Amino acid sequence: MDNLSLFHELEALLRLDSKYCMDDGALIKNKIVEDALNLQPELLKYLLSHDGLKRNFFSEVEGVLVFDKVKFQQFVMNKSFLPDSYTAFKNKIGLTTDDGRFISESREVVLSWPYKDCVLEGGQTKEDAKRNEVFWSETLAPNEINRLTEPKALSGFKRYDTDGVHEVSHLDSSDNLIIKGNNLLVLHSLKAKFTNKVKLIYIDPPYNTGDDEFGYNDSFNHSTWLTFMKNRLEVAKELLREDGAIFIHIDLHEIAYISVLADSIFGIDNRVQIISVKTATPAGFKTVNPGPIDVTEYILFYTKNKSAFNFKKGYVPVGYNINYNLYLVNPNDKAEEWEFVPIKDALLNHMDFASEKEAKAKYGTLWKSILKELIQQFAFENAKQIVSVRDPHKPTDTVKELMAKSRETEKVISMERENAETSYFYKGGALAFYSNKLREIDGELTVTELLTDFWSHISWAGIANEGGVKLKNGKKPEKLLKQIMELTTERGDIVLDFFLGCGTTAAVAHKMHRQYIGIEQLDYGKNDSVVRINNVIKGDTTGVSKALSWQGGGSFVYCELAKANQQFVDEIETATNHETLLEIWQRMQATGYLNYKIDIKAIDENASDFKALSIDDQKRFLIECLDKNLLYVPLSDMESEEYTISENDKRLTKEFYKKI
Length: 660
What we know:
Elements: H1 3-14, H2 29-37, H3 41-48, H4 51-57, E1 58-61, E2 64-67, H5 69-77, H6 86-92, E3 119-126, E4 133-140, E5 154-161, E6 164-166, E7 177-180, H7 183-194, E8 198-203, H8 221-239, E9 240-250, H9 255-266, E10 271-278, E11 296-303, E12 315-317, E13 326-328, E14 340-342, H10 343-350, H11 356-363, H12 366-381, E15 386-390, H13 397-409, E16 413-415, E17 423-426, E18 429-433, E19 438-441, E20 444-450, E21 454-455, H14 478-488, E22 494-497, H15 504-511, E23 515-520, H16 529-537, E24 556-561, H17 565-574, H18 578-591, H19 600-605, H20 607-612, H21 615-625, H22 647-656
Parallel strand pairs: 7-23, 7-24, 8-9, 8-22, 10-21, 22-23
Antiparallel strand pairs: 1-2, 3-4, 5-6, 5-24, 9-11, 10-11, 12-20, 13-14, 13-15, 15-18, 16-17, 17-18, 19-20
């Protein structure tokens, strides 16, 4: 059987298994090669079922069939297999090895498992007015990475303060920073200055739902996303202080995957909690999902070093707790003489009613509906006299004896404690005073309880206009970030968010007088983080402004990674026709740095095939031609005239890296 016939036979055989096919029916070459290299039993079974394929790819050694996976890989990657695909054109282009095969097909760059030890260079762009956010990305093998993660030059410095926008004359170590550019490369650039200095990292990364900006169509969806996150989290860990913490906000689609990944990076011993956050109510859903309605997201809370981290107790407002149902009549008497009555009786007495029957006669049907509110207000106003009897947690033998004594005598038994409040026992339990639940939150005295790992007290309704900006399907409440910062930081600590979005983290950090670094790749126009933080400086009154008595003030510095090949990427992504892409290609050859694999002559010889590709495939190909190590200007090459970086930007970049 000749190769062409064998190609057709293999194609027909593989189409029997949906995992090897995309939605449009095209075969997924990478998946086929991956399963072959991993000796996937199902694939081998398919091949053994066909006599021609069996003869070509299996050899018998002492009665045992041995699969030649290298030969099979070469066969599948041959340009004659699926010749009309984008991959077929791509495979025509590139340098070859000594045996005549393209470098891209050599075993050295074929991963035996998807992507883990590589770097996923992910860029974002806004394609059109609808703000479709997509990643163009490429998984690069370690031997292709040499300058990608070197510190980069910065440009476009501006300072925003109460007087407006100004040129930056100098940088201060306490400056707040908003940096535009690829977040992986910015993180690596920050290492020179901020390693072991960041107290809190909060990130709200792409959830990989298929509807958000992490737009992959390949068969390695989870693997690519995890590699993307792994690259960034490993650098983030280096930036954290020993007593620092990271909060990773995610939903159900990747919670299991990111948990295992974060355990491996930060250490399972440094995992504090997985916090469940209630983000919606069932009433907001027009249709019923299969199974329980999804109203929850999750926040993974890790420390860099749990033994060094200073854990703080958090408190949340709550309603009246019905377990506090006794009223202490004579608090000024000795404890053993204390008398208690039910809180309802104390309320009735306070309202000058001889009985509840008398109250019902006055209020009629309203009494039942207002009683709970009346009791709650009465308990709040008389908190020092409202008590409950509870079972203490892990009581000592001494406490057990005093509890037993209180049960026998039916009197209050007290126990003095060194450097602590006196404990009281009554009727076999411990007395808890309602006043201990009162705390000041956001400037108001309120009834509270300890914060747990289920956060249902933060409303997500009405946050659309916080900060004067909007972000569809991604905005987080300022109150959420305020609570996280209260748990983990002090005034002046550094807070980092490298998926900044519309700027909630930076906005709250600014209002709470924390130093912050925000990294974002997209320009959201009038809803950008720069717009939002500028509103904060001017005295934004939304979000947590009232709770923090925010009046405005402060400043931040904006800058960007200085673009090299990234400029071509931006142009390619916004191109709308073949002619523009061809013009970009000509300039790339003249001024851009191309991938070392690229054979320009081979591309020109196959120009007709390139023109036959769709615009999307042409864009993909041109981006792959670029050297990803030179997306942005390396700090070490900043002085080169070919990059045309201004003298002021050079000076400020050196100042940022403390090279002066």
